[in-house]
Amino acid sequence: MILEKIKKPNDIHKIPLADFPALAEEIRGMLIRSVSSTGGHLASNLGVVELTIALHNVLDFPEDKLIWDVGHQAYTHKILTGRKDAFATLRKEGGLSGFPKRSESDCDAFDTGHSSNSVSAGLGYVRARDILGQKHYVVSVIGDGALTGGMAYEALNNAAELKTNFIIIINDNSMSISPNVGGISTYLSSLRTAEAYTGIKLNVTKKLTKIPGVGTAIVDTVRKTKSSIKQLFIPGMLFENMGLTYLGPVDGHNMRQMMKLFNEAKRVEGPVVVHVLTKKGKGYVPASTHPDRFHGTGPFDIMTGKPLSEKKAPTYTDIFGKTMVRLGKSQKRLTAVTAAMPEGTGLLKFQKAYPERFFDVGIAEEHAVTFAAGLALGGMIPVAAVYSSFLQRAVDQILHDVCMQKLHVILAVDRAGLVGADGETHQGCFDLSYLTMMPNMTVMAPKNGWELEEMLKFAVSYNGPVALRYPRGTAYEGLSEYKEPIALGKSEILHRGEKLAILGVGNMVKICEQVLDGLRQTGADPTFVNVRFVKPMDTALLDELAKDHRIFVTVEENVKSGGFGEHVAAYMESCHPQVRVLPVAIWDRFVHHGEVESLYDRIGLSARRILQAIEEFEE
């Protein structure tokens, strides 16, 4: 096998060009076999195999810097930099990350996991290189979907001032996770139709240079003229008008063409955009037919492409989506907003049922929130469904545009808490801290699927900013006998005991149920509270429990700093100093990838670890 010859960075330079197509097929086979076993991001990685090989052929690592936007498409890059033997550990605890990690390899130039930041990071590398008098190349690979994020344009605008080389590659596969939307998608589509331009440019240039005496001068004049020949063939000329040289489009599965263009890009004295056309899922029919389904996948059967796990009970996302459709029938002003995740957030059925009230704004979380604010001011009831980790990008918009104006915007915060295999960049461990610090914000967390549905109904009828946070995965069906109506700022007492009170937040209620059983086995009879509202905090209940309880244990799937436990501890310190508070939360750390249950135990959120913490606290 050709792939066996690649054991460390730059070994690809020893492979004859004639063997590159076979190498690409070997890598594809390895990716399909590996991801079918471990799960991961398949379609995007299959689409960039040739692109990655071509880049590695023209670059040297780790001297040159390659930055992958989002980063989930860096599997081939990892294989070509000496990590193929570790691929069986992909996304497993202690194994290879599914994203670039500087701690994993010097060839990973930037830790990525969120979108639209690669050009900014690359520009920083370029400026540092120039100041230090270094000579290496810096390449940022950004997907067409990531170009819906405003940060990319801030960086492109800044990059236009460069007088030295900086290569920006647009990986254009017509998709981010779901099909792309908006003006940039339309613009890139128009560029694709102008593929003939590149050939025309080369032919015209060759013929002009052959004119005796004046040919070269004419070519130089044409190149320097803003209204050049390129304007005739490509509408808009967005990148050139911003001050960046544009090359392409080029077939992203023709390695010779790409290498030729990449080498040409290396000679440009300034920022250069190389437009590469790839097909997401290429080489594996199920992935190319359904690229959205194979964006992020669990283990699957290679022959059929079907998931190995059987259909489970409804997820929290499923319940949210179905409830939105039901509410949309009676609530004619209810609208849904998502940032390129209609399927991931469960809104596909709402989109089909009420297309005029559904808005996919692309990968643009900041815009999504302020757009929702405008919808609210215009008389609608907007629900902005965004993953917890991605909602962090819109903190200023939530604070300034929603909370300051007391607008009725509902934030459906999916994937709150630990998400497991995707690791640090995707764990939703900070939302309780950044949302509860905001005046006028109401924050809820359901204990099970029924409560999610009831809380969404409450949020729609409420008048003000409200966030509803819920976890990834199967909705908890336990404690179904407890169905006390939702009331603003009121907790739910699941069991009234004595001395010690356990206050569980959202998904942690099911863990607290196990903790309660463990304590009962020791003869204790704790009070068990489903917090429901992290903000406003149920101070009336805290006051009541303070009369005959000496210890409060708060349990939340959020960082300790700024979380529910700290708020409870501060209140008790001020009003009931005789009551001790044990906040069980995630300490000051980023949580790496792994199985969620294993991570719970590692960071102190498993029932075993919580019981141990209580025992030590009582001593």
TrEMBL record:
**Assembly and interaction partners:** Homodimer.
Q: Which GO terms describe its molecular function?
A: 1-deoxy-D-xylulose-5-phosphate synthase activity; magnesium ion binding; thiamine pyrophosphate binding
Q: Does the keyword Manganese apply?
A: no
Quote the function comment for this protein. Catalyzes the acyloin condensation reaction between C atoms 2 and 3 of pyruvate and glyceraldehyde 3-phosphate to yield 1-deoxy-D-xylulose-5-phosphate (DXP).
State which pathway it belongs to. Answer: Metabolic intermediate biosynthesis; 1-deoxy-D-xylulose 5-phosphate biosynthesis; 1-deoxy-D-xylulose 5-phosphate from D-glyceraldehyde 3-phosphate and pyruvate: step 1/1
Enumerate the SUPFAM superfamilies for this protein: Thiamin diphosphate-binding fold (THDP-binding), TK C-terminal domain-like
Q: What is the lineage of its organism?
A: Bacteria, Bacillati, Bacillota, Clostridia, Lachnospirales
Q: What keywords is this UniProt entry annotated with?
A: Isoprene biosynthesis, Magnesium, Metal-binding, Thiamine biosynthesis, Thiamine pyrophosphate, Transferase
User: Where on the tree of life does the source sit, at the highest rank?
Assistant: Bacteria
Which Pfam families does the record cross-reference, listed alphabetically? DXP_synthase_N, Transket_pyr, Transketolase_C
What PANTHER family does the annotation carry? 1-D-DEOXYXYLULOSE 5-PHOSPHATE SYNTHASE-RELATED, 1-DEOXY-D-XYLULOSE-5-PHOSPHATE SYNTHASE, CHLOROPLASTIC
Cofactors named for this entry: thiamine diphosphate; Mg(2+)
> What's the protein name?
1-deoxy-D-xylulose-5-phosphate synthase
One cellular component GO annotation, for this chain's record?
cytosol
Write out the GO biological process terms. Answer: isopentenyl diphosphate biosynthetic process, methylerythritol 4-phosphate pathway; terpenoid biosynthetic process; thiamine biosynthetic process
The reactions it catalyses are: D-glyceraldehyde 3-phosphate + pyruvate + H(+) = 1-deoxy-D-xylulose 5-phosphate + CO2
Task: Please verify whether the record's keywords include Glycosyltransferase.
Answer: no
Give the family per the record: Belongs to the transketolase family. DXPS subfamily.
Q: Which InterPro entries match?
A: Dxylulose-5-P_synthase, THDP-binding, Transketo_C/PFOR_II, Transketolase-like_Pyr-bd, Transketolase_C
Q: Which residues bind thiamine diphosphate?
A: 72, 113-115, 145-146, 173, 284, 365
Q: Where does Mg(2+) bind?
A: 144, 173
Transketolase-like pyrimidine-binding domain: residues covered: 314-478
